[in-house]
Amino acid sequence: MGRRVIGAPVGRAQRWAVTGAVFVVFVLLWLWASQTTGRGNFPPSPGKAFGRIITDASGPLWSDIWASTWRILIAFTISTAMALPLGVLAGISLRWEAGVVPFSEFIRYMPVTGFGSLSIVWFGLDEKQKWFIIWLGTFFQQVLMVIDDTKRVPREFVDVGRTLGMADRRILRHIVVRAAAPRIWDSTRLALGWAWTWVVLAELVNADKGLGHAIENGRRLFQYDKIIGYLVVLGIIGLVTDQTLRAVGRRLFRHEQVRT
């Protein structure tokens, strides 16, 4: 086949160069679109969007970031605390799988946006309504991913535990969970990305702070530079969070194969 392509090693410097080049091309295309296809102030140029970020950094931006982060921390912690044990149990037991998988598949195909008005009826207009939207958008997907991660543990590992006379509880804790942990970590990292997506929807109703609230205000006031700027902030937060969790995962599971 000639020069090796599939799985060929890439140095750190080369990876950074490729990543940087992609972002440069993205900004150049954005600049081109703002100068040639824009109508009025839309789409705003990169300079206007980043200028808005810099301006708001001395005002409401940090309080909006903290408000959104706090909502995600609460809702996603609840989702993860529920999804991990339920997913592991459904991954090792056919009875649990029969009870969890079909219902999770049923719910996850319902659009979260359709629950916006219902969530207000159920939880009112306080923080619980926002937590619910974020939880709903992540929990059922997260459960199914944890189930799949657990099922990927080689059957031979469990057979070794039985050969050693280990009880099912010890096999679950010392073999299944430990073997599935790297994949579960990555699934949790991906689910956190969805949480950042749903926080925008959650903050559209009766929120006085938050990135979603700021974006909605920008839409109402036709502040397109604010909309795009805050979307860029969301992307930066997501990228930094994702790369941080990747690094932590590599360190935690350095003796295991972690999906990248």
- Using the alpha-carbon principal axes, give the shape: globular
CATH topology value of the largest domain: MetI-like fold
Strand percentage: under 5%
CATH architecture identity of the largest domain: Orthogonal Bundle
Helix content: over 70%
Spans where pLDDT lies below 50 across 5 or more residues: none
Number of domains: 2
H-E order = HHHHHHHHHH
CATH class of the largest domain: Mainly Alpha
N-to-C CA distance: 25 Å
**Helix-strand makeup class:** mainly alpha
Put simply, the count of helices is 10
What does this structure look like?
This protein has two domains: 12-43; 46-252, MetI-like fold (Orthogonal Bundle). The protein has helices at 12-36, 46-57, 61-92, 94-108, 116-123, 127-151, 155-163, 168-202, 211-220, 224-252. 28% of the residues are buried. With 260 residues, the protein is mostly helical. It is globular and about 70 Å long. The two termini are 25 Å apart. The chain is built from ten helices and no strands.
